Amino acid sequence: MTRKRQNRPDRTDAPTAAAAPSLRPAPDATAVVLAGGESTRFGPGHKALATLDGEPLIRRVVGTLRAVAGRPPIVAVRTADQRERLAQALPRDWDVRFVRDEPGLSGPLAGVTAAADTVTTSWLFVAGCDMPLLEPHAVAALFECAARSDGDRDRDRHVSADGDRPSPPAIVPVSERGHEPLHALYRRAAVRDNVSELAPDDGLGALLNRLDGVEYVGFDALPESVDRSVTNVNTRTELARVAAEDEVRR
What is the pTM of this model? Predict the structure, then answer.
């Protein structure tokens, strides 16, 4: 089964198993692609516009999440120039929405907060623009965890007079290497209710530490492709290595 904790797991924590994904419908979720970083380690140009197998990273990420979520993703950017350049790399008929990072915050949390203030869905699936190997089955399995959780809560509402069964404020993959907050689901209300308590330079880890009952799902409970799905590229060397490994697989 999955396990729930209030605090972020240590890197020595071993994940526990969970039920295998079924064919339940996806939850009420919007995918959020974080693209507001300065890409300082990557070098000149926005890394979201670098290509893998001839396709910009931003297009690969958005395309995968658009297909899995069944609705247009949101792309969070820091500047108007970023928005203009990234929009040119995406098909217009994808109807991708852009939001500007929350100015009082920094890093991924700024984009997640801006998205939470924009969408109306219950869940946000958060990913980085530098994750070109996102796997539909790995993402869908997390959606299944949220759908199962929401279904259990709705069922308990009808059989218990003690109130609603608590639902997790976030669902985060975890392996022996640590947790993956940039390949995770966040309940929109949980973000909105807690962000005011965070410092301007806090990250998603600080948000998770504030949330009670976060569901950490072990990699062994997810499709094997999750290990590939969480891959991100911070430098051109890392992108070249991913490209070489991808070529070997083919």
Answer: 0.84
